[in-house]
Amino acid sequence: MGPTMRAVAYTGLDGPNDFQLIDEPVPTPAKGEVLIRVSRVGVNAADKILLDTGFNLFTGQPSAQISGSVIPGGEVVGVREDTGQRVVALCGAGGYAEWVAVSAARVYPVPDHVDDTDALTLMASGLTAWFLYEAAHVAPGESVVITGAAGALGSIAVQLGVCRGAGRVIALASTPKKRQFAQDLGAHAVTDSSAERLAGRLVEANDGAPVDVVFDMVGGKVFEEARAALAPFGRLVVFGTASGDSPTLETVSLAFGSHSVTGVWLPNFVDAGLAGPALDKLFELHGRGEVRTQEGPLFDLEHAREAQDALADRNTFGKVQIDVTTR
Ligand SMILES: NC(=O)c1ccc[n+]([C@@H]2O[C@H](COP(=O)([O-])OP(=O)(O)OC[C@H]3O[C@@H](n4cnc5c(N)ncnc54)[C@H](OP(=O)(O)O)[C@@H]3O)[C@@H](O)[C@H]2O)c1
User: Fold this and answer.
1) 51-87 CB burial, b ≥16 within 10 A, e <16
2) Which atom of ligand 1 lies closest to the CA of 244?
3) What DSSP string describes 273-295?
4) CB of 180 closer than 6 A to ligand 1?
5) In the structure, how many helices (H) and strands (E) does the chain have?
6) What is the DSSP string of 89-127?
7) Who wins on pLDDT, 213 or 18?
8) What is d(CA 262, CA 311) in angstroms, rounded to the nearest whole number?
C-alpha cells in the first residue's frame, strides 16, 4: 500500500455528527489533475446542505474549498516535501483531507503577499462576491442591498460595493455588533435583517428610494421583502438559502417592475474560465488594503464537526476554516 493521509469521511445520514476521521490512501492525480498538499479548508454552508440532502454520501467527503501547495510532477509515492507553488483550488468534494487531487483548471496561484488563510477567503468568499456584482451589472451610483453582510462573503461584498462606486451599500445583519462591523467596513446604511416591514426599512435606508440591486443568501421572508423594495429595472441575485426556505416566484410579477432575478453558483464561473482574472484583481485589492479579510475561527481536522456547528450557530465573523497542517 502507498502513502496514507488523514481525511474526514462522511459515514451516515446525520450531517456533521457522522463525520469520521479516517486514514486513507493519498490520491493519485488523474490526467489533467494536480496533487495539492492542503493547508486550509473552507467550511461552507453548502457542505451542510449537501450533507442534509445525502449528496455527500456519494462523494464520501465534504468541502470544496482549499489552499495549499502543489506537488510538482504529480508523482505521489514517498513525496512528503512541500516545495511547490502555493495555490488555492475549488475541488469537487473531498477537501477535508491532507492531500487532494484537483483538475488543474480549478487551481490558482497565490502571490507571496497573501497568506493561505486570506487566500482561501478571497477565493471562496471574495470570488463569489465579485461575481454577484458582475451578474447584477451593478453600475456606479446604484444602490446595493447585501444580506448576511457581516459574514465572510457579505463583508467582502460590502467592501467591493465601496470599491466599485456603488451609490449606497445597505448592509443587512441580525445583531448590533454585526451591523457595526458592516458599517466599519464602509456600508452607508445598516438594517436589522429580522425587523418587521423590512421592505419599507430598505427604502428608508436608501434615502426614501426603492433599491437597484439585492444580493440574497437568506431566502424566505427576506427574499420576499427585499424584492418588494426593488426599483424599476431592479435586479435580485440569489446565492444561498440560509433560512432553508426557498420561495416560489410568480413570474408575471417580474414583468411589472421589469425586474430580473438571477443566481450565482461559483463553480459555474470557475468552469467558464472567469475566475483567474477576478482572483488576481481581488489579491491586488487586498494588497492595497481596499478589501480586508476578517480572520475567522480556525479548527483542526479532528474538530471538523465543531467547525460546521460554529457556522450553523451564526455567531462567527470571518471565514470558518480548518487548519489541516496541525496534528
Ligand atoms: N453561490 C455560491 O457559489 C456560494 C459560494 C460561497 C458561499 N455561498 C453562500 O453564501 C452564504 C454566506 O457564506 P459565508 O461563507 O459568508 O458564511 P458566514 O460567514 O457564515 O455568513 C453567513 C451569514 O448568514 C447569515 N445567516 C446564517 N444563518 C442564517 C439564517 N438561518 N437565516 C438568515 N441568515 C442567516 C448570518 O448573518 P446574520 O446573522 O447577520 O443574518 C451570517 O453572518 C452561505 O449561504 C453560503 O452557502 C454561496
Assistant:
1) beeeebeeeebbbbbbbbbbbeebebeebeeeebebb
2) 31
3) T-HHHHHHHHHHHHHTTSS---E
4) no
5) 12, 15
6) EE-SS--SBSEEEEEGGGEEE--TTS-HHHHHHIIIIIH
7) 213
8) 26
In this prediction, residue 80 carries a pLDDT of 39
- What is the pLDDT, as a whole number, of residue 75? 42
Could you report the per-residue pLDDT of 131-178, keeping only the tens digit for each? 999 999 999 999 999 999 999 999 999 999 999 999 999 999 999 999
Cβ of 234 closer than 6 Å to ligand 1, yes or no, is no
Q: Does 316 sit in the ligand 1 pocket, CB within 6 Å?
A: yes
Considering only residues 324 and 73, tell me which one the structure prediction assigns the higher pLDDT.
324
Ligand 1 pocket check for 135: Cβ under 6 Å: no
CB 261 within 8 A of CB 249: yes
In the sheet with 260-263, reading across from the earlier edge strand, the strands are 189-192, 168-173, 143-146, 211-216, 230-238, 260-263
Closest CA to 164 of 138, 186, 146, 131: 138
Q: Ligand 1, residue 319: give the atom nearest the CA.
A: 19
- What the chain holds in terms of domains, given with CATH numbers, is 4-109+294-323 (3.90.180.10), 125-267 (3.40.50.720)
Q: Pick the atom of ligand 1 nearest to 193's CA.
A: 41
Report which ligand 1 atom has the smallest distance to the Cα of 240: 45
Amino acid at 157: A
Regarding the beta carbon of 15 and ligand 1, being less than 6 Å apart is answered no
Residue 240 in contact with ligand 1 by CB distance below 6 A: yes
Tallying the residues shown for the chain, one arrives at 327
